Amino acid sequence: MPEGPTLVILKEALQPFKNRKVLQVEGNSKMPIQRMQSKMLLEIRTWGKQLLLRFSGFTLRIHFLLFGSYTINEPKENRIPRLSLTFKTGTIYFYACSVRLLEEHLDDLYLWQADIMSDDWNPNRTKALLLEQPTLLICDALLTQELFAGSGNIIKNEVLFRKRLHPLNSVGDLPAKQLNAIIKDVRQYAFLFLKWKQKYTLKKHWCVHNKSTCPRCQIPLKRAYLGKFERRTFYCENCQILYDHKD
Fold first, then answer.
1. Domain at 4-109: CATH code
2. Which of 24, 43, 55, 108 has its CB surrounded by the most CB atoms within 10 Å?
3. Beta bridge partners of 24
4. Mean pLDDT per 10-residue section of the chain, whose length is 247 residues
5. What's the fold here for domain 112-235?
6. Residue 144 CA to chain centroid, in angstroms?
């Protein structure tokens, strides 16, 4: 699943299509995608893991789910896109994604303060919401888009390792210093993710995600499907601390 930094890269890649008219619409989406025919693409935004393409009177929302992808100007062989938009400047292809047309104003639908990549990101808001959910597992918190829009499984695994926190910690059991540190590091790591992704070196910087050995302790990492989201979690039982109410 593309995470917030990847969507920012996509937004930049789509700039040549901004203020251009859609010349052709195709795809197997059941949504009324022909509505975009001959429409001008006015704005390209992202919120978390969602791509938002604004046209006059409505917005196209693309959510890549777990296995969604995109290409520009080069269609995938033997694959029918969920949606393709052709402009004078080229064609955008979207695959295995959710396509939805939004009628409301985006500011009425999205809280930009929750987006870890946004200039409007508000860590104090996220902290206040976390403190209202003391039993929430930290591995689930980092995947909850209302708290950390744009944070995904890679960011979750890497940030927990960087902050030496066991994924099964509950929010209420974390010392205040640790809670503050992890909120701060989610955004910091997201921008490192962005930089590394732009340089095609992201995987070289992974410490635990898809790894088998802890780089600090040189012992096998644990791999499990944890929390309510049951996403793959890589962690070290030796150096990632599990607090409890007695600590």
1. 3.20.190.10
2. 55
3. 86
4. 90 96 96 95 95 96 90 92 96 95 94 96 97 97 96 97 97 96 97 96 96 97 96 97 74
5. Helicase, Ruva Protein; domain 3 (1.10.8)
6. 10
